[in-house]
Amino acid sequence: MTQWSGVKDKRVVITGATNGIGLAAAQELARRGARLAIVARNPSKASSAVESIRSSSSGDVIVDVLHADLASQASVRELAAEILQRYPRVDVLVNNAGAMFATREVSADGIELTWALNHLAPFLMTTLVLERLIASAPARIITTASDAHKGRQIPFDDVNAARSYRSRGYKRYGKTKLANILFTVELARRLRSTGVTANCFHPGLVATGWNRNNGPLMSAAMSIARPFSRSPRKGAETLVWLAESPAVSDETGGYFVDKRRTMPSAPAQDADAARRLWELSEAQTRLPANA
Questions:
Q1: Residue 143: what are its φ and ψ, rounded to 5°?
Q2: Residue in 87, 165, 173, 255 annotated catalytic
Q3: Residue 3: other Cβ atoms inside 10 A
Q4: Among 152, 144, 121, CA closest to 265
Q5: pTM of this prediction?
Q6: What are the helix and strand counts (H, E) for the chain?
Q7: Which of 94, 93, 107, 264 is nearest to 179 (CA)?
Q8: pLDDT by residue for the chain (291 residues), tens digit each?
Q9: Which letter does DSSP use for residue 112 in this model?
């Protein structure tokens, strides 16, 4: 594999970059010379993020904004088409957007919303631009997972959570984070010998706006946890390292915590479950096999 030379002048596409660890990572990647394309749903938040990224960097900073609602498969497809049209190269794809929902909701596609946003969006997005990443090799795919995956299983018998949405959504969130890891495992297997690596990471408990969309009780709980949380910049360190460091050029299929490859739970290491999840995800996104 060609030696990785950092992110300077490389095209980095990152979702969930208008706040939290995504914004902190975008700021740091910009400081290191990356040519950023941030994906955002809210134009106002996108504008603020761009100004924040530019103000935290020196020199000419290139930041493109791509608008999409990642919970909508039609919007993800439009986003992927725009990426392919605008960028001859995609060197790094960061699947960072995610959320937790206290009550069960469904997307425009009839998919439970946590699953649609946290798992199917990165699956579909990555699959649709995968050939461009391969053509740009060496290239990297990074997905934000979480230790919330521990103790969870993929609910293959109730994947849309019609019967199992409990505990104010936290269990469901953990299942989507398990899906992120299994997606990474199977993606890395499929990308062998292509020059494209796929890894995921746990950012730790980070003081961001995460889970503050679920009413006053959850917002209060996050405020209580804030003194024990790390900063967004600290939470983004492993993401930036996975994107930038030559030291991980040969690492793929890994789950990283604080820049160290770590063993996730046993269900997250199940290669058969990873393949089964991939096939299920193809069906849910109406992708042809091997697309």
A1: -125, 135
A2: 173
A3: 7
A4: 152
A5: 0.91
A6: 10, 8
A7: 264
A8: 457 999 999 999 999 999 999 999 999 999 999 999 999 999 999 999 999 999 988 767 889 999 999 999 999 999 999 999 999 999 999 999 999 998 999 999 999 999 999 999 999 999 999 999 999 999 999 999 999 999 999 999 999 999 877 656 889 999 999 999 999 999 999 999 999 999 999 999 865 554 444 444 444 343 333 443 568 899 999 999 999 999 999 999 999 999 999 999 999 999 999 999 999 999 999 987 555
A9: B
One-letter amino acid for residue 163 of the chain: R
195 closest CA partner among 3, 1, 5, 12: 1
Neighbours of 7 (CB within 10 A): 24
- Which tokens sit at 188? 């890395």
Per DSSP, what are the bridge partners of residue 144?
Answer: 201
In eight-state DSSP terms, residue 266 is: G
DSSP 193: T
Can you tell me whether residue 119 is helix, strand or coil?
helix
Catalytic residue list contains 173: yes
Three-state secondary-structure class, residue 37: strand
What phi and psi values does residue 256 have, to the nearest 5 degrees?
-115, 140
SS3 state of residue 280: helix
Instruction: Report the interhelical angle of 20-31 vs 237-244 (nearest 10°).
Output: 40
Taking alpha carbons only, the member of 33, 27, 129, 120 closest to residue 81 is 129
CA distances from residue 274 to 42, 54, 182, 226, 253 in whole angstroms, order as listed: 33, 39, 5, 34, 11
What is the distance between the alpha carbons of residues 9 and 160, in angstroms, rounded to a whole number? 41
